[in-house]
Predict the structure.
Amino acid sequence: MHCEANAIELQDLSYRYPDGTEALRDISVTLHHEQRVALLGPNGAGKSTLIAHLNGIIMAQQGTVLVEEVPLTLDTLATVRQRIGIVFQDPDNMLFMTNIADDIAFGPRNLGLPEEEVQRRLARALALTGLEGLAHKPGMHLSFGQKKRAAIAAVLAMEPAVLVLDEPTSNLDPRGRHEMLDFTASLDVTLLVATHDLEAAWELCDRALVLDEGRLVADGDAHRIMRDRELMLAHGLDVPLNAGE
């Protein structure tokens, strides 16, 4: 199903903002297909900056980003963006058409795919996200949780190799959060989940990366890392309540 190449490889990735802030410092990490990886860290750790490098929203100042062994450059940007699907925290930034069916179909249509293929992808994305009955509703008429799922559906319609979720459970009520976790757990896709919701990370992910002050300070089995109270507290994090200590 997946190509044998690594999903994502970062080599000595560093980035400094114009004000001099070092957002990323010599990040080297390889993510493999079929993994579910939590990206953890306190506010300002560099998580959002790292995510923005994965599909060229920010281009590397130093180091290399490879997606399925293709180096991310201006020449490969379009190809890489079809392989990495990023869903940002605020779904309203991703829903702009008259209804969510058109939002979801926008990407495949923009690729110039035949309408039959566009409709196949639309139907699949709606089914995966449980939104079949809402296809003709405008985004503004959906609940926040439905909007989040619609934004994910729009990315899934591009059939990416890797799905990156930025704070997928933020601002959801308990029911919406449980629905999001159940839905995300059901997806057959390589996942990178940046989140402050450590209970969600515990449930969803088998590997964890911990960033702090732009450095990768831990990388390994998600449950082992999240049970390490000394490590977690040292980097502004708590042990998840569902860690079963």
